[in-house]
Write a structure and sequence with these properties.
- With 177 residues, the protein is an alpha+beta fold.
- 31% of the residues lie in helices and 27% in strands.
- The strands form 2 sheets. Strands 4, 5, 6, 7 and 8 form a 5-stranded mixed β-sheet that branches. Strands 1-2-3 form a 3-stranded antiparallel β-sheet.
- Helix 4 links the parallel strand 5 (111-116) and strand 6.
- The longest helix is centred in the first third of the chain and has 21 residues, at 2-22.
- It is globular, with a radius of gyration of 19 Å.
């Protein structure tokens, strides 16, 4: 019995120490002019440092409180050097209980175009309230974390966004700063 307790204590210590070094923050948050113009990669996030040696890089995204039926801000750790639109959308989708499939994310000038699969939520089998919450989660998370984007446009994989609840024109802006 003592061997099991010693093993568990050792395992917790190893995982705790390795986790601290894995999420250690980066100091190079400066972007070159080429990176800003191309909008390929961008690093904008907050550092939440504890009372120790290491710091954890986090970003604020939005998720859905299923009980209350509203948006909830959520800080998530970042294990990547750069925050990209794809990283943000993936973090949002990982924190939503329904399966949402994004087929394409494209940044053009100061707009982000997010295309959804027509076979999954939010385009198919989704209430108006829940669809609005999903779209708001994604758009708010993108606008809050990427400074070079001012507008979010949603599309389906075949063109303009069309669901049983909403119909948007091909380049209709869903939300903006």
């Amino acid at each position: 019995m003592k061997k099991i307790i010693y093993f568990l204590c050792f395992a917790i210590l190893v995982f705790g120490l390795s986790g601290c070094s894995f999420f250690q923050g980066k100091d190079d948050t400066e972007l070159t002019q080429d990176e800003i113009e191309s909008a390929a990669n961008h690093k904008v996030f907050q550092s939440a440092s504890g009372s120790g040696v290491s710091s954890i890089d986090t970003m604020l995204i939005y998720t859905i409180d299923d009980i209350e039926g509203q948006l909830v801000p959520l800080k998530v750790p970042i294990a990547s050097e750069r925050v990209t639109p794809e990283l943000i959308v993936n973090e949002v989708l990982d924190n939503i209980d329904e399966k949402v499939v994004v087929t394409e994310i494209e940044t053009v000038k100061k707009r982000i175009y997010v295309s959804f699969s027509e076979e999954y939520v939010p385009i198919k089998k989704c209430s108006k309230k829940f669809e609005t919450l999903i779209l708001d989660c994604i758009s708010n998370s993108l606008l809050d974390n990427i400074s070079y984007v001012n507008k979010v446009v949603f599309r389906s994989e075949k063109g303009a966004y069309h669901s049983s609840n909403f119909t948007f024109e091909m380049d209709e802006v869903y939300s903006s700063r």
